[in-house]
Amino acid sequence: MSVSKWATGAFWSDAVERAVRTAAQAALGIVGAGTMGLLEVDWPTVGSVAGLAAVVSLLMSFAAGSTGDAATAGFTTTSTPAPRTETYRQS
Questions:
Q1: Contact call for residues 26 and 50 (beta carbons, < 8 A)
Q2: Domain membership flag for residue 41
Q3: DSSP letter at 82?
Q4: Could you tell me if residue 90 is inside a domain?
């Protein structure tokens, strides 16, 4: 019997990383949208929007759980590194 993709540490590590990154991006978007100072930020709204973004990210990870690479929480089929580029020196 095979282990579900959702039961692996790799899946949860990737899913939580994506959720935290998404929450931080959402919070940054709200904080940066028209506020001038730290005390002017509507922190409950920032927390609410960031929390919702994290939940949506986790739901997307679950949706991707039945497809893609078993080592990630993404929809892609493989996780390949970017190709290396050569650097040239000018003489």
A1: yes
A2: yes
A3: P
A4: no
DSSP annotation of 14 reads H
Give pTM, 2 decimals: 0.69
> Which amino acid is present at 7?
A
SS3 of 2-46: the string is CCCHHHCHHHHHHHHHHHHHHHHHHHHHHHCCCCCCHHHCCHHHH
- Quick one: DSSP state of residue 72? S
Quote the number of domains for the chain.
Answer: 1
Going by the DSSP 8-state scheme, the letter that residue 66 receives in this structure is T
CA angle, 15 as apex, 13 and 21 as ends, to 5°? 100
* pLDDT per residue as tens digits for the range 16-52: 999 999 999 999 988 877 767 778 888 899 999 999 9
Of 63, 84, 85, 82, nearest to 74 (Cα)?
A: 63
User: Do 49 and 27 meet the contact criterion of CB atoms below 8 Å apart?
Assistant: yes
